[in-house]
Amino acid sequence: MKNSNLRYSQSKEKSAELLRMVLGHMGQHDAAFNPLTFTVWFEYAAGMNKQLNQAVDERLQSQPRLGDADLLNLYQLHVAEVDPQAMHRIGSELQRVMQSLGDKASLAGGQAGEFGVQLETLVSELLGANNKLAIPAVAKVIEGSARMRSSAQALESEVKVNQLEIQRLQGELARVRDESLLDALTQVLNRKGFEQKLASMLEQPVGPGRSHWLVMFDLDHFKKVNDTHGHVMGDRVLQALGEVLRSCVPANSGISAARYGGEEFSMLMPDTTQQECSKLAELVRTRTKALKIRDRRTQVVVLTVTVSGGMASMHAGDDAQTLTARADAALYRSKQAGRDRITGD
Fold first, then answer.
1. For the chain, domain boundaries
2. Are strands 342-344 and 307-313 parallel, antiparallel or unpaired?
3. What angle do CA 209, 212, 216 make, to 5 degrees?
4. 3-state helix vs strand vs coil in the chain, percent to 5
5. DSSP string covering 286-332, please?
6. Tens of pLDDT along 260-277?
7. What are phi and psi of 250, to 5 degrees?
8. What pLDDT score was predicted for residue 49?
9. What pLDDT, on a 0 to 100 scale, did the predictor assign at position 176?
10. Helix (H) or strand (E) holding 45
11. Pick from 42, 35, 36, 39: which is nearest to 16 by CA?
């Protein structure tokens, strides 16, 4: 079973192919040959980071040779990990401050308005008393009050605009955070997303007769697929399995599908019975077996695939590592027993 980081889950052969492309890119630019530069060009060549590819392509239109500063900037913006909880906390705090400022601006505007009405009443009374000496001074105060009210209203309006922009940015951050947890090829959770969902699941309570379940899946003879049909066809098989997993997850069920590493996938099923887990795992197996991968030019079926699975339920004292190990062991038993089957722990 594979234990590599899913962010870079390419096979040795695919990595060698990408290496040649990366070295070609690095040789065309002025940035130093270092791990940071290599990482940017590796993700660019692999096509695994859509935002990075778009940013690089846009920059190359006006700047054909990229230097160290360019690669550092691209790395920081599109490759380096972001702490989503910290970003959300900062955004929420800024939103709270802007809301407070808006409330104070609104209050100041209202008070200025009340003060202006009081002054206008005073002017009327002075006019009635024919106190011409006081009228010019009071008129200046009224004019200043109007300016103050206008400034407060402008500030209130600007704060509201900024609040909307912060809300937009928070939404964009949430979208980016969600995208960072998805595997670009298969559109199920990536390894990082899997680990977050698993940690969350283990903290949830379960009902009577139910448990938290983890199912590990592995495509059978996937190396043979790559060797016989090439990595492009291998990627199509992985995409197809991703579609199968997504189609098997009931809406609003709390169940999550993930690509664990390479050709190994998983399903997290919180607060589920053994029967429900087994039924869903079998559904994944049968739908995978029914897949027909066709030649896109001739529509001729070129291969079919099967998947093996291993189920494990959470036991007292389990953590993420022990639960995953038992599901992986059950998967291994399925492989040993002839593949294309689901085995429980």
1. 6-78, 84-180, 191-344
2. parallel
3. 130
4. 65, 10, 25
5. HHHHT--EE-TTT--EEE---EEEEEEE--TT--HHHHHHHHHHHHH
6. 989 999 999 999 999 999
7. -65, 145
8. 87
9. 53
10. helix 35-46
11. 42
Residue 53: closest CA among 234, 184, 175: 184
Cβ-contact 318, 211 below 8 angstroms: no
pTM for the complete prediction?
A: 0.55
| String of DSSP letters for 234-281 | HHHHHHHHHHHHHHHS-TTS--EEEEEETTEEEEEEEEE-HHHHHHHH
CB neighbours of 236 closer than 8 A, spacing ≥ 6? 293
| DSSP element (H, E) containing 50 | helix 50-62
Inter-residue contact 260 to 194 (CB < 8 Å): yes
Encoded amino acid at 81, one letter = E
CATH architecture under which domain 191-344 falls:
2-Layer Sandwich (3.30)
Contact 170, 151 (CB under 8 A): no
Tokens 């002054």 -> residue: 119
pLDDT in tens, 94-105: 566 556 655 655
DSSP 8-state class, residue 160: H
